């Protein structure tokens, strides 16, 4: 499954810190029912056996909802379960090397913070870019903020889709309007909310408005 600008509208990144008695599978399904259009499984501390099991389950769920599914950082896991692709950061494997391992049909996303990084990632085969942190965030303590001017410059410099990530929520998402991004990536704005489905529904509608996809649609209440 390839990614499109439409599939990147509301990109949900998992985080088990907010399970609150639910399973990750249940939370991801709620997000999908609410309107998440892309799922990234992000696990930093699971044992490999558990990670594989979880990844296979979430992959099957995303297939049911016909939603792209990628693994954060772990190219080996992505290949083992035949995920739709992988998302890597600047300190991880280069997109060019990931492409060699996963092949031409898989999705490769790359995190960038500068125009130079963006152009390099595009050159070496990235399918989309994640730019951030665009707002202050508590999810990644080492995240550095990227100015909205730089975000716009990155969007103008590359030909592949760009999404913004980092501290995005219902209150600030409209500040990204006009930047050139095709969607937003969120973690706590969905998974830390008491009603995940409703949070995803509202963010999906706001993301449509922010990216001007509401033109031609009836703009009802959020």
Automatic annotation (TrEMBL):
| Positions of the Thiamine phosphate synthase/TenI domain | 10-190
Give the pathway: Cofactor biosynthesis; thiamine diphosphate biosynthesis; thiamine phosphate from 4-amino-2-methyl-5-diphosphomethylpyrimidine and 4-methyl-5-(2-phosphoethyl)-thiazole: step 1/1
Q: Which residues bind 2-[(2R,5Z)-2-carboxy-4-methylthiazol-5(2H)-ylidene]ethyl phosphate?
A: 137-139, 167, 187-188
Q: Where does Mg(2+) bind?
A: 73, 92
GO MF: magnesium ion binding; thiamine-phosphate diphosphorylase activity
Q: Which residues bind 4-amino-2-methyl-5-(diphosphooxymethyl)pyrimidine?
A: 40-44, 72, 111, 140
* Names of the cofactor(s): Mg(2+)
How the cofactor is bound: the record states: Binds 1 Mg(2+) ion per subunit.
Q: Which Gene3D superfamilies match?
A: Aldolase class I (3.20.20.70)
Q: Which InterPro entries match?
A: Aldolase_TIM, ThiamineP_synth_sf, ThiamineP_synth_TenI, TMP_synthase
A biological process from GO: thiamine biosynthetic process
Please state the Enzyme Commission number of this protein.
Answer: 2.5.1.3
What keyword terms does UniProt attach to this protein? Magnesium, Metal-binding, Thiamine biosynthesis, Transferase
Note the CDD domains from the entry: TMP_TenI
Q: Which Pfam families match?
A: TMP-TENI
Q: Which reaction does it catalyse?
A: 2-(2-carboxy-4-methylthiazol-5-yl)ethyl phosphate + 4-amino-2-methyl-5-(diphosphooxymethyl)pyrimidine + 2 H(+) = thiamine phosphate + CO2 + diphosphate; 4-methyl-5-(2-phosphooxyethyl)-thiazole + 4-amino-2-methyl-5-(diphosphooxymethyl)pyrimidine + H(+) = thiamine phosphate + diphosphate; 2-[(2R,5Z)-2-carboxy-4-methylthiazol-5(2H)-ylidene]ethyl phosphate + 4-amino-2-methyl-5-(diphosphooxymethyl)pyrimidine + 2 H(+) = thiamine phosphate + CO2 + diphosphate
A single Gene Ontology CC annotation of this entry is: cytoplasm
**Sequence similarity:** Belongs to the thiamine-phosphate synthase family.
According to its UniProt entry, what is the function of this protein?
Condenses 4-methyl-5-(beta-hydroxyethyl)thiazole monophosphate (THZ-P) and 2-methyl-4-amino-5-hydroxymethyl pyrimidine pyrophosphate (HMP-PP) to form thiamine monophosphate (TMP).
Q: What name does the UniProt record give this protein?
A: Thiamine-phosphate synthase
Tell me the organism's taxonomic lineage: Bacteria, Bacillati, Bacillota, Clostridia, Lachnospirales
Query: Gene encoding this chain?
Result: thiE
